[in-house]
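Sequence, please.
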């Protein structure tokens, strides 16, 4: 099974995202919270096409929702 993690969250301040390998295998669109230890939340949606890219060992970058007046670009890669 692949191990997936957030390789980079721009301007990060405590946010975190872990994408379970089972979700990559399933390949169905899913929305995740990236709140982590931060005092506010953002969410990111990974599409079926994104999951196909991850399954091919390529990274994806998605933009989070806006909260507290800002958003983040989240790059996910799997190995």
């Amino acid at each position: 099974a692949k191990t997936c993690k957030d390789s980079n969250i721009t301007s990060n301040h405590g946010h975190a995202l872990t994408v379970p390998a089972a979700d990559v295998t399933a390949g169905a669109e899913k929305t995740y919270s990236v709140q982590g230890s931060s005092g506010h939340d953002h969410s990111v949606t990974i599409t079926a096409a994104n999951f196909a890219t991850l399954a091919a060992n390529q990274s994806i970058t998605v933009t989070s929702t806006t909260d507290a007046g800002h958003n983040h670009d989240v790059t996910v890669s799997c190995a």
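Residues 48-55 form the longest helix (8 residues).
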